[in-house]
Each structure stands twice: as C-alpha cells, then as structure tokens.
Amino acid sequence: MDLFDKCTLNLGPLGQYADQTEGYFMFPKLEGDISNRMIFHGKERLIWSLNNYLGLANHPEVRKADTEGAAAYGMAYPMGARMMSGQTNYHEQLERELATFVKREHAYLLNFGYQGILSVISSIVDRRDVIVYDSEVHACIIDGMRLHFGKRFVYPHNNMENLETQLKRATKMTAETGGGILVITEGVYGMSGDLGKLDKIVALKAKYNFRLLVDDAHGFGTMGPTGAGTDEHYGVQKDVDLYFATFAKSMAGIGGFIAGDYKVIKYLMYNMRSQIFAKSLPMPMVIGALKRLDIIRTQPEHRNKLWTIVNTLQSGLKEAGLDIGNTESPVTPVMLNGTVGEATQITYDLRENYNIFCSIVSYPVVPKGVILLRLIPTAVHTLEDVDYTIKAFKEVKQKLEQKAYTSEMADIENV
Ligand SMILES: Cc1ncc(COP(=O)(O)O)c(C=O)c1O
Question: Tell me: the pLDDT tens digits for 385-404?
C-alpha cells in the first residue's frame, strides 16, 4: 500500500463529506470588513460565527495601530527567535502590561495560541508528573499531552467528584514517582459556553497538592469585572498557577500569552520548544496587541455592549423554547435533534432564506442525532440582529419538528 492511498480512500471524520460541503459548509469565504454583516456567496449575511467578541477587528484605533506598526517595521522585524535575535522592547512592554492586567508576576508571548499552550504543557511536565484534565479540553491541550511521557488521567467534563477521584490516583502515583500534578481545564468551553468550575477546582487545593493551568481562550476580554478572564470572574486569580489566553478571539489578532509566577515563566522561556525554535511575533502584531489591550482596559463599553447582546440573545432564545444548554459565557449553542443531512439543510435554509451565517456542528464532533448551531454574539451586533435571529431560529425549530427538512444532504451545487 502506498503511504498516500489514505488521502483518497479515507479523508477522515471531517473530510468524509468534502465533496458535498467544501466552499459552503467547510472552508466558506467571508468577505468584506469584519463586522456583523459580511458577504458570503455574493450576498450580505448576518454573521454569528466570528470570535470578534469585543468588535475590535475593525475598530478604527486598532486598524490605525496595525497600519502604523506595519508601516514602521514591515512584517519581517524582528528576525529570528526571541532567544536568539528576536527580542524587542515592545515585546517586553506587552508582556509587562499583560501580566499587570491579569494580575500575575510575569507573562511571556506565544507566537500562536495552539503551539504555545502545547509547548507550555510539554515543557512544564516530565515523565514523573501526572496530568489530570477535563474530557472536553481543546485539541491543543490534547496534543500538548501527547508529548508528555508520564501518565494522564481524564475526568468527565466538569465532574468535580470524579476530578477528586483522579486527584487521589494522581497523588498516589506521584508519591511513587516523586513527580507533581498538573490539572488542566478551560475557563470557557468554546462549544458549549459553560465555564470550567474554577472555584471548585481551586478549593481542592486544600486537600491535594497540584498546580492548575487554565486555557482561557474565550474568557480573556469577555469574562470578569475588568475582562481579565474567567478566573477574575470567579475571584480565584491567585490560585490559577498558569493562565493562558490567545490573541485570536477578543483581541482579534494572532498570538497569545502565558502568565504566572516569575520563576515559572522564566523556566518556560528557556524550555518551550515552540518558542525557542520559532520566529518571534512580528512587530505589527505586538504593536497592534498593545493597542487592543489598551482598549480592553480603558473602554469597558465594548464589553458592556457585548453582554447586552449576549443576555438579550440568550434569554430570547430560551423564551422561544430553544435549548441553549448551560452556557454562562457569550458562546451561545443552540441544540436541535436531527441527522447530519437535516443539519446541512437547516444551515442552508438559514444562510439562503434568512441570510444568517452561523457555525454548525454535527456528528462526529457532537453525539449522533445532535445538531449544534453555534452563535457568537459580539459588540458590533445590534438588538435588531438579535430579534431577527431569535425569530428565525424559532421558525427553523418548528420546521424541523414538522419534518420539513429531509435527511438528504443539502444540495449546494448551484449555489
Ligand atoms: C480553547 C482554545 N485554546 C487554544 C486555541 C488556539 O489558539 P490560536 O487560534 O491562537 O492558535 C483555541 C483557538 O481556537 C481555543 O479555542
């Protein structure tokens, strides 16, 4: 068998429908300025699928800072990895400001969120250590753990009783190996919108000796009184030993950071392979991130507007009889029951007849029979957008119940 035979025989769980879905459901193109309305397939649609929570992607001050950063430095500077030749005052300034904002001693920039947290995990544990993690953590955490040579124990999503069971096992094991324990959770779970139970997890520190890493990709900028994250929301910043966030969501940029005690961040700076052996964040990204952070700190109106939209959307959907699960964050899942075919038909109906563009998730990402439509409210949405969307979803639910959608995959050939 040739190595590449698999590429035509089996495209994998997401690729299996590529012929029917590509360009429409998968790899769609959204064009125009990033906002609540963008062009999809030549027509303006109401967009609910961008993690542009605070609306910063197209904020005039942000666009100006990005442009000025690029004009002054281009995309090349600084060349090389931070450790070798890629260090600048701006990188250090951003780290100081991020650390202060999330109330940690020190922070270190990461070139990408995904590779960054993967490397944090793989460098902070060794073969004697045990990782205990939530079953629904993001792929980047799973990949980070794949580089861990020691044991890892999983607890069912947010099941604190089971977490304690795993901590007991891990404590027993590390007593033998001489290692330590790392617990990993997300702050906000990006599909369901529910929160990692950070208050309950840190309470377990009274009984067990472990360190806690929180991936707060969706919580940074959206959660907590100042937007500093889900640990601020719970009032447990002191007990979250390593705080990770990406710039790809509220910050509407690229890159990320890890924050914690000085000695731990210093250790990571000299051991994270994805940073040591990779080029530094380009200057316009850093200058742009400083501006975004400044806006998050000084213009709370964007967060307030976001939450007005979130609260109106979520209460309206619930009143309309739609199941939005247990979200406590801006992430708004709408759960329906149906086949993969029905899911494509609903999405098609929403996009073509209601001009609503949202993400759709069906089997195998969620259990068979579940259709998850995910809405991401932002500060640039309007209350009219919310009202219109609730009405549309109510109608779609009725049509689904009346079996108006068949199980055939939506025909997108002529769209
Ligand atoms: C929970 C979580 N962690 C990490 C990442 C990776 O971040 P980035 O897109 O900056 O690589 C994401 C992004 O999708 C995420 O949702």
Answer: 999 999 999 999 999 999 99
Question: Where are the chain's structural domains?
Answer: 5-57+301-406, 74-298
User: Is the beta carbon of 113 within 6 A of some atom in ligand 1?
Assistant: yes
Closest ligand 1 atom number to CA of residue 254 = 10
Tell how far the Cα of 349 is from the centroid of ligand 1, in angstroms.
Answer: 29
Can you give the pLDDT at residue 331? 98
Span from the CA of 217 to the centroid of ligand 1 (angstroms): 6
Q: How far is CA 387 from CA 226, 313, 334, in A?
A: 28, 8, 15
Alpha helices in 206-261 (DSSP H): 230-234
The minimum-distance atom of ligand 1 relative to the CA of 189 is 1
- What is the third-level CATH fold of 74-298? Aspartate Aminotransferase; domain 2 (3.40.640)
Q: How far apart are CA 293 and CA 250, in angstroms?
A: 10
Q: Which CATH superfamily is domain 5-57+301-406 in?
A: Aspartate Aminotransferase, domain 1 (3.90.1150.10)
